[in-house]
Amino acid sequence: MGLWGRNFISPRESEREHCFNELRRHIELASFFGVKVMMVGGGYNQGQPVKEQAMKVCELFPPYIELAESKGLKFSFYNCHWTNHVTGPDAWDIVLDRFPTVGIKFDPSHPFYQGADYLQHARDYGHRFYHIHAKGCVKVAGQPFDDPPAGMDQIDWRSLFAILYKHNYQGDINLEPHSATWLGERYYKGMLFSKRFLEQFIL
Prior knowledge:
By secondary structure, this protein is of the alpha/beta class. Helices cover about 45% and strands about 15% of the residues. The chain has helices at about 15-30, 50-60, 60-70, 90-100, 110-115, 120-125, 155-165, 185-200, and strands at about 1-5, 35-40, 75-80, 105, 130-135, 140, 145, 175.
């Protein structure tokens, strides 16, 4: 279960309180439904150094991480930039060190579009991956072009799966349709294509 786009580290106390109240309710709901992984962003304050934002996460999140874990949930931060600074090594090295049981919801498209090395992210932090999204992505002339079905794109899924096996990853690989090109009849055909493509790597 995910809670997306909340600024947990907002300078406004009322916004922080609202976000964490939502998180508490989501944790309770996730527990009720038997969810295995809870994923959130760490919040984002424009212009504030990543280190300062990450330290704020370390200050504010402990009660909610403890609540989630007390209910049998794995707690993770997604690597999408949607109101989130916990997206790569600069923040991971602080947050994951502070919370040794917390992990990462990883989607290779985000570092790919940011020009970062998603395979290096997987190599160095794959032992902390709790959940993975498979979303295709294509850049042309260095710019995002479309998000076709996984397997019809530029992500090196073969190498990524090899790294996941190296880390003995045991979580899900969830398909994430994400393109206006692949709607209607194409939507299900695209999902089936990705399923068939990625299944070849499931041993």
